[in-house]
Amino acid sequence: MRRYCGSLRKKDVGKDVVVKGWVQRTRNLGALVFADIRDREGVVQIVGGKEVGALRPEWVVEIKGKVEEREVKNPSLSTGEIEIKVESMKVLSKAKIPPFHVLDEVDVSEEVRLRYRYIDLRRPRMQRNIILRHRMAMVARTYLDSLGFIEVETPILTKSTPEGARDFLVPSRNYKGKFYALPQSPQLFKQLLMISGLDRYFQLAKCFRDEDLRADRQPEFTQIDVEMSFPQEEQIIEITEGLLKEMFAASGINISVPFPQLTYREAMNRYGSDKPDLRIPYKIDDLTEMSMGGGNRIIEEVIYSGGKLLGMKIPNGLTRKEIDSLNSFIKELSGDGIFWLKIEDGIRGNLKGNEEWKEKLCDSLDLHKGDTAVFVAGKGIKELMGSLRVKAARIKGDVEEGMKFLWVRDFPLFELDSEGNLTSNHHPFTSPANEDVSILEREPLKALSRTYDVVLNGIELGGGGIRINDAELQRKILKILGIEESRFSFLIEALEHGAPPHGGIALGFDRIVMMAAGEESIRDVIAFPKTTSGLCLLTGTPSDVDKPQLRDLGIKITSS
RNA sequence: GGGGUCGUAGCUCAAUUCGGUUAGAGCGCUGGCCUGUCACGCCAGAGGUCGUGGGUUCAAAUCCCAUCGGCCCCGCCA
């Protein structure tokens, strides 16, 4: 009977088995030849005569033989105590010389891996990632099902929305000049499902956003999309924590719940980020108030004009070289550079000012002998300081091991975009905090929202919120944002037909798997990813299409 | 859209600073030898549009311009 190569053990000695797999490598000693045969579960050594010596790497073979205990064992292999003595052998498929070895440790460029993805996916590490992804999807479905959530598929061909990311568009053949759009998320459909009375919905949903890519961003990606009726924020948070706990357990990682929570405001003030990496122990301090009269004219002028002085303690000091590299890092991010202080025998550093003030700064930052503090002065520098925090920790190696989850709550409802227009921080269907409804029009930027993001090690895993279920309030928000109500008239109308209070969350499934797999790019947990410029090197997508296809669609390509 | 970095043999890289003989190495590949290997070993050999196009020059992998592609970052990502 057929067995997986990697499943054979000492207890199988004496059995007649068949294995089918790929030739990993041969070791030809003349009249005695060894070969490693690989399948999904691992490799096993076969041994035979000259005929085995004809095998070449990546040929697909069927081997019949008897499992025997090895004369010389290999303790570094799980099948290392046994081998298969070949009785008959069939080559099922020959193979070209592979572009690279199918081994985890072989160094090969991502370009080549993506070009030959089907070979790259033969590597144990990639198989482990893809299988882990499957397990985590299964666990998520089982968990949500057990809590009464119902998986519903929502359309892939849907309506373009004016806000948010660029849409991928699909031209309509029957209605020339009109377009479907691929969904950026199933947001509106899941709200409609709540209005439909489904009560609890989820979906492993494909989402599409036509924006520039990163190590953790692909043009198409998968969300675990969840929505429920009559929720409290705490309920959604608890359900999500349980979901993540189960999913990580599937990869053998135990995480403790509940996660700590920060408000957006706290996160920004203390960590300079709305997705802080809590593996880094540094915290940011606002030293603005104690710095008037400190004798540093540059900083005093910054404060006069509404800026701040932020400081951060780096325990156990930085060398001059490290300070220089942080300084150039900040300058590259268009900052003015950093100030620093270091306590040795006295206070040293490039921060000018009177001694009394400097001592106050040191006290306030709890600086002791050997410690360094870095400072940035200016307006809108919280995030700059946040970047400095991460950079300094990487330089110093002050990033702890482990999985540090947290919730960031109470995001502002609105923010200003680069052109100074009011936009939604989350999306236009997010409910404002009850107490802020009255200030929506007067002081929109001060209004908070009923939102929560879940963050792991500085990476945003997902976010959600309580939605608006009142048509009037939804109209008001759209009006404040300057969005034509008609774009969402179907939603408004639905809200007028009996909409329960509802809310939910959307989790980035690829990112969750990436973290659980210990990978640094979501490309490594997606079977067929695109490059950072959005190409598929395997298929050569995107590609030209035939003229008749375009004619059917009423599309003319203009040279750009 | 912007910045950085890389592109030389099937793969990973060297030679590029400061132009100059025949562009090298390891792995892989091909052939030969080898009965306990497991990164098998030994001997011999083949293999190159130096990403692409243009320019400068007596001469370009090397200098200049453009362009294509990989990766990372900023902008962007409701």
Main sheet summary:
8 strands, mixed
Mean pLDDT: 94
Query: If you compute it from the alpha carbons, what radius of gyration comes out, rounded to the nearest whole angstrom?
Result: 29 Å
Query: What is the number of E strands?
Result: 22
Order of the strands making up the biggest sheet = 6-9-10-22-21-20-17-11
Helix content: 25-40%
The fraction of residues assigned to DSSP E strands is: 15-25%
Number of continuous helical runs: 14
Separation, N- and C-terminal Cα atoms: 61 Å
Q: Residue ranges: pLDDT <50 for 5 or more in a row?
A: none
- Identify the overall geometry: globular
Alpha-beta content class = alpha+beta
What does this protein structure show overall?
By secondary structure, the protein is an alpha+beta fold. The protein is globular. The longest helix has 23 residues, at 124-146. The model has no long low-confidence stretch (mean pLDDT 94). Strands 6-9-10-22-21-20-17-11 form an eight-stranded mixed sheet, with helices on both faces. 26% of the residues lie in helices and 24% in strands. The chain contains 14 helices and 22 strands. A hairpin with a 3-residue loop joins strand 14 and strand 15 (347-349). The protein binds one RNA strand of 78 nucleotides through strand 1, strand 2 and helix 1.
Layout of secondary structure:
Blueprint: E1 16-28, E2 33-39, E3 42-48, E4 60-69, E5 82-93, H1 110-115, H2 117-120, H3 124-146, E6 150-151, E7 169-171, E8 179-181, H4 187-195, E9 200-208, E10 220-229, H5 233-249, E11 261-263, H6 264-271, E12 284-286, H7 297-304, E13 308-314, H8 320-332, E14 339-343, E15 347-349, H9 355-364, E16 372-378, H10 382-396, E17 405-409, E18 414-416, E19 422-424, E20 451-456, E21 459-466, H11 471-481, H12 489-495, E22 502-508, H13 509-517, H14 547-553
Helix pairs in contact: 3-5, 3-13, 8-10, 11-12
The protein binds one RNA strand of 78 nucleotides through strand 1, strand 2 and helix 1.
